[in-house]
Every structure is written in structure tokens, then in C-alpha cells.
Amino acid sequence: MKVVITGGAGFIGRKLAQRILAQGELTGPSGEREAVTELVLFDAVAPPDEELADARVRAVTGDIADAALVAKVIDAQTNSVFHLAAVVSAGAEAEFELGYQVNLDGTRNVLEAAKAANGAPRVVFASSLAVYGGEVPDTVVDETPITPETSYGAQKVIGEFLITDFSRKGYIDGRAMRLPTIVVRPGKPNKAASGFASGIIREPLNGVDMVCPVTAESRMAIMSPRTVVECFIHMHELDSARLGASRAILLSGFSVSMGDAAAAVQAVDTNRTRGRITFEVDPHIQAIVDGWPKTTSSAKAGALGFPSDSNIADVISAYIEDELD
Ligand SMILES: NC(=O)c1ccc[n+]([C@@H]2O[C@H](COP(=O)([O-])OP(=O)(O)OC[C@H]3O[C@@H](n4cnc5c(N)ncnc54)[C@H](O)[C@@H]3O)[C@@H](O)[C@H]2O)c1
Known about the structure:
Number of domains: 2
Bound molecules: nicotinamide-adenine-dinucleotide
Order of helices and strands: EHEEEEHEHHEEHEEHEEHEEHEHEHH
Shape: globular
Largest sheet: 7 strands, parallel
Strand order of the largest sheet: 5-4-1-6-7-9-13
CATH topology of the largest domain: Rossmann fold
Structural class: alpha/beta
CATH superfamily of the largest domain: NAD(P)-binding Rossmann-like Domain
Radius of gyration: 19 Å
Number of helices: 11
Distance between the termini: 34 Å
């Protein structure tokens, strides 16, 4: 079967690709597990060479806003699409037109191409907690109203609704997941406003001093890269009838304060020389973070068997194992 990952050169896209290649199969059009014979990584940038060592992998570099190119990549033979390409939160806020081109027009291009494919391909869409805004409760649950207050959040909500509507019409078999902040992001930070939550772990463990721009008491809902990749696979494999009328679900993150994250970095068993962590509040970032939920808890995701993490120490150990050792 042919599988396409948009954003396949990005942080989660690359990890998802490795996971799919290792497993070697996914549920195909027959409803049974089928071998993945072609995995296309579509992205604005080329993936690193090591991702292309596997004969099943093909990279296509281009713009998701280019409808003709997307139709070539997601062709009649495509069975599954993981749609992750996006301009992330602060990027979409800073560049209004670009955000709509990539996050809305790009998503429509993906859905139109999938609609034109043979059968109704499974399409898994990466949504975000940015769909919530305004008076957000400390714990976001399945019933929390959708009230985006950023362009990125609005684009993700529209994406979710399109996934549900194209599925209702039988054009695709779509699914959308609202991801908490994924920690630890390796390498360089991207334009996400939540970048410090990874930085507070990543920088000290790489011997770099870290200035955290929010108070030690600030809490966030997070999920590890390992777990989010398992959620993508689980969402793909799920019988979508179990999702109900809306094809979008919330994933359960866990709550961690930046002070606890800093303490856990100091406590972790490693002989690496650690950088120092200091707290210097940036009022702009603090105000953004104060508006975010402190955690997310989805009874629906739990009932459907989606995995979740439980503590920051395990997340840090997994980062050391996967990225540093
Ligand atoms: N990482 C998180 O904490 C998090 C949280 C919530 C939601 N999400 C969502 O998950 C998805 C993946 O996130 P990520 O952390 O891997 O982000 P990322 O920035 O690492 O990856 C996104 C990829 O999309 C690509 N892209 C951007 N514009 C493009 C365009 N015009 N055409 C083609 N490709 C383009 C980028 O080059 C990048 O490789 C995104 O949709 C993001 O909104 C991520």
C-alpha cells in the first residue's frame, strides 16, 4: 500500500515515518493489515539522507499550497495520508497570509486529492489544543467548547470540520487528533510559542544554559514524541465508526510545571555536564501560556485505547535514549 506523510521531514513526521517502516504494515483498503510498499515524505524541505536509505521511502519537496503538486503526490493509488504539514502557532500568527495558505488551502488540497483517489483513503490530521481559547478551564475535557483565539487555532478547527465533512460524504475515511505540546523536541526550536517546554529539558542536557521565559509554577499539558507517534498509528488503525459523528478527538496530555521539569532534569541519572536553568519572565510569553490549559483529559481517547504518558522523568529518559545516547 502507498502511504503519504505531509510534513514528513518535520519533527513528528520523521518519527512517524520510522515507526511505520519498522512496523512494515498498516490497515489497508481491504480492511486487513497490508505491507507498506511506498512511503512518500512530502515537505517544503528535504528530509535528512538517512531517512531515504530505505527503498520504500521517496521524498517529494514542494509546497502543500500547490494543488497540482499535491494531486500528483496523493494520487489514485494512495491508500493512507498522515497530514502534518503546517506553519506552527507563532508562525501562523506572525504571517497571516502564509498561515491560511499552508494550514487551510494546503489542507483542502490534501483532502481534494484524497477524495480523487481510488477508494476512500484514511486521512489522519494533526490538530492542536489551539482550538481552545478564551476562558479555557485548567483541565480541558471532551466537552470543552471549541473557541480558537489565534489564526493557527482557527485553521486547525476548520481542518477538523473538513475532515469530518469529507468523511460524512464518504470521500475519505478521515480522523483528527488534538495534540498537546510534544516534549522533547530535538535539535533547534521551531516557531511554536511553547518551545521553552522542550528547551528546558533539551538545552541543559546538551550542556547549554537555558533561560525559561515563564515562572517555575507555570504548568502545561504535554505528551512525549514516542506516545504521540503511537497515537497516530492507533488513530490510523481504529475503526472510524467508533469515533462517532465528529472525527476529531482530544488526546490526554499530562500536567507538568516548568519548576518540576527543571528539577527532573537535574535528578535524571546521566553523567552529561548539564547547563544551568534560570527563570526570567517574558510578560508576552507568560500571558500566552497563562491562557493555555494546564492539562487535558479525554475519557473518549481513554475508552478508545489511546496511550498517554504519566511523568516527566520517563519523558526525559526517553529523550536521552532516543536522541542523545
Ligand atoms: N509538536 C507539537 O507540540 C504539536 C502540538 C500540536 C499540534 N502539532 C501539529 O503536528 C504537526 C507536526 O508538528 P511538528 O512539531 O512535527 O512540526 P514541524 O514544524 O517540525 O513539522 C512541520 C513540517 O511541515 C513542513 N511545512 C511547512 N510549510 C509547508 C509547506 N508550505 N509545504 C510543505 N510542507 C510544509 C515544514 O517544513 C515541517 O517540516 C503540525 O501540523 C502541528 O501543527 C504539533
